[in-house]
């Protein structure tokens, strides 16, 4: 499944164009490798996303083409969520 679609369906990012923009600005890594919006996401992948001054790291548990709101959180597990001072750093 495409990264931008996964982020939208899992409701990590509410809109697909926003997910595409975040990915294409180099703010998302899959398994430590910089990802584009068209990158494939598989079950077991670790995804690190930078939102402004927050870094969210998740593990992909399920892939669905569409979900209900209550089922979206079952698609991933949060590994870590931390605040950062420098918004340009994914490390």
TrEMBL record:
Q: Which UniProt keywords apply?
A: Protein biosynthesis, RNA-binding, rRNA-binding, tRNA-binding
Q: Which GO terms describe its molecular function?
A: ribosomal large subunit binding; rRNA binding; tRNA binding
Q: Which parts of the chain span the membrane according to its record?
A: none
Q: Which GO terms describe its biological process?
A: rescue of stalled ribosome
Q: Which CDD domains match?
A: S4
Query: Which InterPro entries is this protein grouped with?
Result: RqcP, S4_RNA-bd, S4_RNA-bd_sf
Q: In what residue span(s) does the RNA-binding S4 domain sit?
A: 1-64
Q: What does this protein do?
A: Key component of the ribosome quality control system (RQC), a ribosome-associated complex that mediates the extraction of incompletely synthesized nascent chains from stalled ribosomes and their subsequent degradation. RqcH recruits Ala-charged tRNA, and with RqcP directs the elongation of stalled nascent chains on 50S ribosomal subunits, leading to non-templated C-terminal alanine extensions (Ala tail). The Ala tail promotes nascent chain degradation. RqcP is associated with the translocation-like movement of the peptidyl-tRNA from the A-site into the P-site.
Spell out the subunit comment.
Answer: Associates with stalled 50S ribosomal subunits. Binds to RqcH, 23S rRNA and the P-site tRNA. Does not require RqcH for association with 50S subunits.
Q: Could you identify this protein by its name?
A: RQC P-site tRNA stabilizing factor
* Gene coding for it: rqcP
């Amino acid at each position: 499944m495409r990264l931008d679609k996964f982020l939208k369906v899992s409701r990590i990012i509410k809109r697909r164009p926003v997910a595409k923009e975040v990915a294409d600005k180099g703010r998302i890594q899959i398994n430590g490798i910089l990802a584009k919006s068209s990158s494939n996401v598989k079950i077991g992948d670790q995804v690190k996303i930078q939102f402004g001054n927050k870094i969210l790291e998740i593990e992909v548990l399920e892939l669905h083409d569409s979900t209900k709101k209550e089922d979206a959180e079952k698609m991933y597990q949060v590994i870590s969520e931390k605040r950062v001072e420098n918004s340009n750093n994914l490390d």
